[in-house]
Amino acid sequence: MYRGREGQWAFVFHRMSGVALALFLLLHVIDISLVMLGPDGPFDAFLVFYHNWPFRVGLLAVIAGVVYHGLNGLRIILMDFTSWGVRYQKQMWYGVLGLTTLIGIPVLWKIVPEILGVA
Amino acid sequence: MATASSRAQRPRTFADARAMASSSSELGWWVFMRISGLLLVPLAFGHLWANNMAFNAGEIDFAYVAGRLAQPGVKIFDSFLLLFAMLHGVNGLRYSIEDYVKRPGRRFAWKMVLFTVAGIVFVLGVMTLWAFSFEEMGDAVRALGAE
Question: Is the pLDDT of residue B7 over 60?
Answer without folding.
Answer: no
